[in-house]
Design goal:
Length: 97
């Protein structure tokens, strides 16, 4: 799960699912914004969790897709994932020399 950093009281709960918490002073990122999954074949899926500012993907070819909350979307290499005001790019993993 990806979201805005939680308060220290809830952040230490060991029963919570794994989270990637991002600093977001603009508060454009929801506390529980999106869910990211990488399967055994390396396919990356993102699902918007009903976030306040939405989730969009700019495909490597330039097309922009607004995600429907609750519907998984497959990302491709070179895609830009926009979570509120935060952007992440999907790149191919490189092995160490």
């Amino acid at each position: 799960m990806v979201g805005r950093r939680r308060s220290s009281a809830t952040a230490s709960d060991p029963s919570s699912p794994r989270r990637l918490e991002l600093e977001d002073e603009s508060r454009s990122l929801s506390r529980e914004h999106a869910h990211l999954v990488v399967d055994d074949q390396g396919i990356v899926r993102v699902t918007d969790l009903g976030s306040g500012n939405g989730t969009t993907v700019r495909r490597s070819g330039g097309t922009t897709v607004e995600l429907v909350p609750g519907a998984p979307f497959v990302l491709g290499i070179g895609d830009a994932l926009h979570l509120g005001g935060t952007t992440a790019f999907l790149q191919e993993a490189r092995s160490s020399p």
